[in-house]
Every structure is written in C-alpha cells, then in structure tokens.
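worker-03 picked up job from queue 'complexes'. Input manifest follows; two sequence lines, order preserved.
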Amino acid sequence: MKPRQKRAVYIVVAIAAVGLAVGLVLNALKDNVSLYFTPTQVYNKEAPQDRSFRIGGLVEEGSIQREKDGLTVHFMITDLKQKLPVIYKGILPDLFKEGKGVVAQGKMEADGVMHASEVLAKHDENYMPPEAADALKKAKAADTAPAAK
Amino acid sequence: MIPELGHFSLIVALCLAIVLGVLPILGAARNNSVFMGVARPLAYGQFVFVSLAFASLAYAFMSNDFSVLYVAEHSNSQLPGQYRFAAIWGGHEGSLLLWALFLSVWTAAVAAFSRHLPEEMVARVLGVMGLISVGFILFMLFTSSPFARLLPAAADGRDLNPLLQDPGLVIHPPMLYMGYVGFSVAYAFAISALLGGKLDATWARWSRTWTTVAWVFMTIGIALGSGWAYYELGWGGWWFWDPVENASFMPWLLGTALIHSLAVTEKRGAFKSWTVLLAIGAFSLSLLGTFLVRSGVLTSVHSFAADPKRGIFILSFLVLVIGISLLLFAWRAPKVGLGGKFDMLSRESLLLSNNVLLSVASASVFIGTLYPLFMDALGYGKLSVGAPYFEAVFVPLMIPMVLLMGLGPLARWKKMSVPDLTQRVKWAFGSALVLALLLPLLMGKFLSLESNKWSPMIVVGLLMAFWIIATLVVSLRQRWAGEGAFMHRVRKQSLSYYGMQLAHLGVALFIIGVTLVKGYETERDVRMNVGDTVMAGGYEFRFNGVTETQGANFVAGVGHVVVSRDGKLQGELLPEKRQYNVSGMPLTEAAIQTGIFRDLYVSLGEAIPESDGAWAVRVYIKPFIDWIWAGCLLMALGGILAVSDRRYRIHKKAGLPSSVNRFSQEQAS
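worker-03 finished. Artifact:
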C-alpha cells in the first residue's frame, strides 16, 4: 500500500473508533442520567411520570412506618414546603434517620407514591447530600421571594 | 510549639522548592553546571523539611493536641493509636501534606538513583518536580494549613469518621497517593524530554522503571480501596463507579496505556510524541483526581468541606499545569519526532490500538464523572450519572482490548504475518470458546444454585479470560521451545517478559472474578426472628439473635449467624452494628467468610421494632469475588517482576547500550 493510502486507512479507522465511542457514550448517557427534583417541583408536576428520577430533602419527623415484613418502609421526603411519600423495600443505609438529609431514586407510580429503588443518606453527621441541601435552599428562597417584593 | 515548627518547616521546604524549580532548569538551558549541581542537595533538603512538617503533625495527633484545629476535627482521645496516626490523612489538609511528603520522597529517590543519568536530564526532572511541589505547598500554606490553631483549645476532638476507622484506611490512601505522585516522575521525565528535545531508548528505559513502580502502587491502592468498600460499606459491592473511585481509575487507565507505550518507545523507538502526551495526561488526571476527591467538589465518603478559595486555586493550578505542558508539547514535540515506522499489522499497531482503547475508556469515565458537574455549572440543574452508564460504555470498549491483548505478545514487531498468527492462535481461540460455552453449564451444580444460569455476558466474560490464558500458554510454549535443559530455557526469558505475562494473567483472573460474581451472586434481604433460617445459594443461615459488646470506642450489637451446608457446619459469622461513642454515628460491620470459590457475607440491617429480637438481615453469596483482588495483586506483582529485570538495574556509566551492561554485570556476578 502506498503511504498515502495507508494514512487514509488510519484516518478512517480513527474516525470510526471515535464515532463508535461517541455513539456509545451518548446512548449510555441518554438512558442512565437521572435528573434531580425537589419535593416542590414534584408537587408542581415538573417531574417525569414514566422514568426514574432523584429526589432530595429531609426525612420528615414521625413519617417512618415499617410494614410487618420488617423490610418495607414508608416515609416522607420534605423540603419543609411540600412533601412526597416514598416506599422502599430493603435495608436502609446506617445514617437514614428522621429529620436528616436523604436522596431517593425511583419512579412515581399511579398511586402518587415514589417507589424507590435506591435510598442514599449522608455519610457523616456534618455532611448533607448536596441535592438535599439544594432542595431546602430552593424552598426557602421561594418562601422569601414573594415577601421581598 | 511543635505545630508552629511544622508550619515553619513547610515554609522552608517551599523556599527550597522554589529554588529547585528555577535554578536547575535554568542551568540546564544555559549549560551551567553549578546551577544544575544544586538540584540534588535541594531535593534532599526539601525531603527533610517536608518530613519534619509531617512528623510535627503526627506528633500533634499522637499527643492529642486539640489546640490544633485539624486534630480537633479529625481525632479524639478515645481513638486507638493506629487510627490516630491514620487520621493524619483522614481529612483535606492532612491528605495534602501526605501528598507533599510523597512528592518529596519521590524527588529525593530520583535524586538518589540517578547517578547514571546525564546531568542536565537530572536537573530538569528534579526542577519540574520542584515546581509541582511549589504548587502544592503554596496551596497548603494559603488555603489549607493543617497547623492552624484552635483557640481556645477544644477539650476533646470531634473524632474520625467511623467509616474511616479501619485497617484499610491506614494503608489505602498512602498506597494510592504513592501512585498518584509517582506519575509526577513520568511527567517530569516527559517535560524534561520536551525541554531537552531528546527522547531516545535510554530515556524510555529510565522513565519506564519509575512509571511502572508508580503504576504498581496505584494498582494496589485501587484494589485496597475496592476491598475496603466491599467489607466496610456493608452493601457487598466492590466497585460503585463513584466519582472518587473514578478519579483514581482514570489515571490508572492512562498509566496502563503509558507503560505499554513506553515499552514500544524503548524497544522500537516509536510512539515518542504519544508517550509524552500520555505521561502529561496521566499526571494531569492524577492531579485532577487528588483535587476532585479532597476539595469537596464531588461529594462522597471521601470529600470534605467545600471552600471557594480552594476551588479557584485548584482550578488555576490545573489550568497552569495542563496548559503549560500542552503548549510545551505543541512547541517542542516536532523536535522529539514521531519515532520509528511500523506496518499497519504489527505488534506496534496492536499496542497502539490498545493504547487508544484505554485512552478512550479513560475519556468515557471522565465524561460520566464530570458531566453532572458541567451541567450543574451551566445551570441545567442537578443530575447524576449512574453505574449502568459506565458499564454500558466501558465493557464494549474492553472486549476488543482484551482480544488484542492476547494477540499482542504473540505478534512480531514491525510487521506480522496474519495467516501465520491465525495459525498459531486458532487452537487457543477454539479451546477458549468451547470452555466458555460449556463451563456455565457446570457452574450451577458447582455453586449449588437452583438452576443452571447461562447468559451471553457470562460466556463473553469467560471467553475473554480464557483467551488471555490460552494465548499466554501459546506464548510460553513458543518461548520455551528449543534444545537443551528445560530449566535453562525457562530461565533464559527475561524477567520483564514474565512480569508482563503475570500481569496479563492477573487481568484474566480479574475478569473471571467480575464475570462470575456478577453472574452468580445471590442476595437476600430478610427479616429474621431468633432461630429463623434462610437458604441462599445452597447454604443455610440460622440467626441466633444479637448480643451486646463493648469495643475500644464504640458499643456494638453482634449478630450470631450460623452457616451450614447439607447439614455440615461451615462456621459462625458475627456481623456487627456499631454505635460510636463520640460521634454517635452508627456503622454496619459486615461479617465475611472468605473462600477461593465463594465468600459468605452477612450484614445487619436494623432491629425490627415491636418484635422479639428480630432483625433485618442481609445475606450474600459472592462466588469468586476474591479473584478480583487476586487479579489486581498479580498485576502488581507482574509490575514488580518487570522492574526487577536486570536491564533496568542502575548502570554506572550512562549511554552504554544495555547489552554491554548486561554482559559486564554477568561477568561481575
């Protein structure tokens, strides 16, 4: 093969490889990105109905209820303005507690309850998941904004 | 007094680093041997003073000096001694100090083991490392000094995060940091080659040893971190594609590409510019990793307080390092040249393909890790990229890589004959394929599952692993063929060859572990009353209740779970639910019985209220999971074997071809 043809082959192979990689990345991103919403946004019907998303806030005081099987847990996630019922089956993280920050990932079902596939709690006493902190901040800002007018 | 001494030592080290970063590089450019000559003493001096600073902080921790803010935040008088020491790197400031300490260790090591290098090369390498050190020490002094005082002093400390009170944390970060910082040597070598405009086989050989050693540390560090997550986080997972894990995985991938590319540069003089670019990339990702993890930009177990001043410093430092390196590359790379020619089908081209695949894999991890950050910064809201993304991108990239990886060691340099190669590997491929198709049919019985599970992913995974092993056998047979005593032929092969094959075998074991644990693991979350039994994967778990016990700085409920199989006792597992005295933080400590073919894993959920001592219990059977870490260990051992090859021993006289040196060494011994 002539050097020029050889170079052409290299370039075509390189473009094909990069194209393949970009395709893989975009395809995987499309399916596996979960957007994050606050309880207020969910209340305002901004969250998607048919796909999984994340929600952050605090576990409302007194809202944790366990079913008899010991594994199914009902609780409310609140940003102190709105709240959303969540149901989760499984073992919760060590730091899942009432009044503390939490992030849940799952789908809204027709019963208006989020069926969580994953529940994350903060890793230590000083740390709040950024999504939970953000939800509280937004709810607070929304509260004070009308008053400032 | 001692903390002030540490702070002062750090300032002295900074001054030495500044001089180290300026004079020797200037000297190399002007051919001034006095300026170049100061590099070594300065490197040693810097090491002494950073060590002093580190020792001061260690003293503050060991003597419970809670007038030091950092100590008060991360330690407690109840904390056992070894964790008080490990708490030095339990937070942001101390981690940076550890980083700086290792940087000065590597710098001093380069100074000590470079007698055979040309003077201007040593000057440039040490100079570049000095400049990196300047950046780090400045960052510490201006934004995150671990020696800041707390007045009035706290009565007692806030305690180390219980998750971090574990033998794993005593060694995982230092290993990982040795790896991260070790890539700075490869980087410094690359920059000095650009500055000097000379990049030849001897350069590659020097650089190779350092890079491989750094890579070994990093491999062990990542494996330890993964093992720690497995037994400490209580979810039984070994890799979560967590941003922090990714931060260490990205430089590892590029570092892996780099050691292969360096091999080609040394042996064939090819891939020169590419090697330099990889060295720059690997170190840039190491820096990014360090900062991502410790700055609080990403949130996970590892990250600490966020502070905008730090963020700006980090960003500027990164932009400076990457920007200057790339500018230098654009300016000087044409001088270094591309290197030797090779055919489109040759060992070089196979290695190049795998280099590209590793780099693309690294880039895809990069995108997934930083995408949420960019989107948030651009105001598109918060989102998260889950583990399925990484699996969907990473696995398809690794399949061709592993196929080529089997071929590489068999292919000829410069030009290979495809029919010849096909002839040599067709049996290897055939037997790997047959085994991969049949083995899953036996797995069900072997692991006593309810049914045989046969899925395409399991077959593909096993095929990859067996392919590596089969081609390895072909390669060994080829190398060992010939006349004379067998042991002589075995010994005739170089250690670096055996190192390479051992590391590749490690990859095969790793793939077997990942494939089988993913394909055959059993997981049960159950409510268990005292005396209840649950079956999982052919094992019977009997829950005998929870008793209370007192630890060094915690109280724990200890679950008693007796495991038996076909009526035969396998042992008792004692998972714990701890409550730490100072922080009040609960922690699940899983109980694991390890085995070659399976781990039994039990962890306690929570006590079920209004019941008679019932608990939520998590029971796992993890087949072959320890093969994952065994694989990593073999990779690291392979690296160690490769650098102990006598070609890389320190030569007294620079510039001699390696064969001459080898000859003279053999004469001597």
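worker-03 released lock.
DSSP finds 20 helices and eleven strands in chain B.
The longest strand of chain B covers residues 539-550.
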